[in-house]
Design a protein that fits this description.
heterodimer, A: mainly alpha, MetI-like fold, 13 helices, globular, B: about 300 residues, mainly alpha
């Protein structure tokens, strides 16, 4: 019996040897920052206080009040929500339609198209933003193409009325690939007898899509909706590289405002802003979960 | 359903599609046409980028725009190599990406293994805490991680660029999920033959995990190669810039070469090539990774 206990002790020791490299790194560079940023958001920590933390005082909810009453932050919040409200449903709809189409062509063609549609996802956002910024110029590629159809395009990124839309379109282009691949996996899980039954009943393509595919795909749609929403709520790179939040704050986002507070040295306000965003993401995920669960 | 029955249904459905051969083929043509148009729109920015990198800046500024380079030139690429020394940021990106990939594979598979198949005190707590951080937005970690790295004196060092990138919960999750499926009988057999925990891990488990390791390697490489915000705040001068930072600062409208479109296109092209090659060569593992976990 004694040897069994010793053996068990040795095996837990071995287990800890396996986990300790990650746990240590994770503790230092993951957990400490996570907890300290929550604490930070209730203090008045600024960049100059990093080396003497004794100057830092607790200020209660002041930073959260600052964040929620600041006009630029409110504008950023509105922009982020508009970006989510337009970008997420459009991305999901196009991705689902493409996935259904891809699911109906042969495997070789499907692979070919899948690679093509996925390419924007793997490309550095910096390169994407640079190329799109040039394409969005007043007399650039997009407006030239619109001109072929007799449409006079706006000055996309320089006009406060269209800049956010321009960035949203780019984000849709960039995110379709991921959702599409997840949808494809979901579609392949639908048993083929369902389609056969539908074919025998003479159901047309539109009916099949809305009455059979969408209801059966609800769990995958939920997963995708939460993933895409969470990603969109954090949108940052696109305005950062393309517009720096302008013109007139029309493309600034919550994450960009957090970054700006960091840049100005207002660490505690930035941390509070980040937690506001975190909370909103959590709430949206719960709302979506409830909404979809009622429908399945 | 028995195999015979399944075959019978398959035969019946083949008969159904044979009867409706003509309309189905027309439908397929329409689907292919839509997919092709979508694909063209998806790769348009890449085509424009590649073509643009061979144009002079004068040609890119000229209106109306030209599609095919009128006077193809390699000047943009030459400038990147000889004038702007792209090799230094390239080398930094390679170092950061390779170390991050190697460390992530090793740490994630070790901890994933212990969490999947070993029993030890603290296992539940580690599992819950690590998986919970899967959902923390990156922006929440940005400021406190910077404060931490600054306090450790790691700003503008490779350590500062690499260490915070190693704590991703995604790898742990991926490896644990895969390792849970490894049959216990195999491990017991190895144990009876006298293999210890470490021998089992390195000689039996890791060779079985080639697929998830490949997936994790690709995703980690891509994340590191494309990573932008963290290197932007940690790298403070040319010696530590990674490619995306270098390119973004180069292209900044204020203080950069914001109007040198030819150079920006060529720089974007150069930065995209490695991930593009990797992606096309290993696209199967990308797709597996997404469908396995639902996360890009």
């Amino acid at each position: 019996m004694g040897s069994l206990a010793a053996q068990r002790r040795r095996s837990s020791l071995n287990a800890w040897i396996f986990v300790s490299p990650f746990v240590l790194t994770f503790g230092v560079f993951g957990l400490i920052p996570l907890v300290s940023s929550l604490v930070m958001s209730f203090t008045d920590l600024k960049a100059r206080d990093i080396r003497n933390p004794l100057n830092v005082d607790f200020v209660g909810f002041d930073n959260f009040v600052t964040v929620l009453t600041d006009e630029t932050f409110q504008r950023a919040l509105l922009n982020t929500l508009i970006f989510v409200a337009i970008g997420v449903p459009t991305t999901l709809f196009i991705a689902l339609v493409l996935a259904v189409m891809l699911n109906s062509v042969g495997p070789r063609l499907a692979t070919f198209f899948r690679v093509g549609y996925y390419t924007p996802v793997i490309t550095t956002i910096v390169a994407v933003a640079i190329v799109w910024r040039i394409m969005y110029q007043n007399t650039g590629v997009f407006n030239t193409i619109l001109g072929w159809f007799g449409v006079t395009g706006p000055n996309w990124l320089s006009d406060p009325n269209t800049a956010l839309l321009a960035i949203t379109i780019m984000a849709i282009w960039r995110n379709i690939g991921v959702s599409m691949v997840i949808f494809l996996a979901g579609l392949q899980g639908i048993p083929s007898d369902v389609h056969e039954a539908a074919a025998l009943d003479g159901v047309n393509a539109a009916q099949k899509f809305f009455r059979i595919t969408i209801p059966l795909m609800m769990p995958t749609i939920l997963l995708n909706a939460i993933l895409v929403t969470t990603g969109h709520m954090q949108f940052f790179d696109e305005p950062f590289v393309m517009t720096e939040g302008g013109p007139l704050d029309s493309t600034t986002s919550v994450a960009l405002q957090v970054y700006n507070q960091f840049k100005y040295g207002n660490y505690s306000v930035g941390a509070a802003g980040a937690y506001v965003l975190f909370a909103l993401i959590g709430i949206l995920a719960i709302v979506q979960f409830r909404f979809f669960r009622q429908r399945t | 359903m028995t195999t015979v029955e399944r075959r019978a249904t398959a035969g019946a459905s083949a008969a159904v599609s044979r009867r409706r051969l003509r309309p189905i083929r027309w439908g397929n043509l329409i689907i292919l046409a839509i997919l092709a148009v979508g694909l063209a729109a998806t790769i348009l920015p890449f085509v424009w980028m590649v073509l643009g990198s061979f144009k002079s800046n004068a040609e890119l500024l000229a209106r109306p725009i030209t599609w095919w380079p009128q006077a193809p030139t390699l000047d943009n690429f030459k400038a990147w190599f000889f004038e702007f020394d792209i090799l230094r940021p390239f080398l930094n990106s390679v170092i950061v990406a390779l170390v991050t990939v190697f460390a992530t594979l090793l740490l994630s598979s070790m901890v994933g293994w212990a969490l999947a198949k070993m029993n030890f005190p603290g296992k539940r707590a580690i599992t819950v805490v690590v998986l919970a951080t899967l959902f923390v937005p990156g922006i929440v970690m940005l400021i406190p991680q910077f404060v931490l790295v600054a306090n450790l004196g790691m700003v503008n060092t490779y350590w500062g660029l690499i260490l915070p990138g190693m704590v991703g919960a995604f790898g742990v999750f991926l490896m644990r999920q895969f390792m849970l499926e490894i049959p216990d009988a195999l491990l017991d057999a190895a144990r009876i033959d006298g293999a210890g925990d470490f021998r089992i891990f390195f000689q039996i488990v890791l060779p079985l995990c080639k697929a998830p390791l490949a997936t994790l390697a690709i995703f980690t490489f891509m994340g590191s190669w494309n990573g932008f915000v963290w290197p932007l705040i940690i790298a403070q001068d040319d010696s530590m810039y990674t490619l995306p930072v270098s390119l973004a600062l180069f292209s900044a409208e204020s203080g950069g070469h914001g109007t040198d479109f030819g150079l920006q296109m060529a720089g974007s092209f150069l930065i995209v090539i490695p991930v593009l090659v990797l992606f096309v060569a290993m696209q199967r593992h990308f797709i597996q990774g997404i469908t396995m976990t639902g996360i890009k």
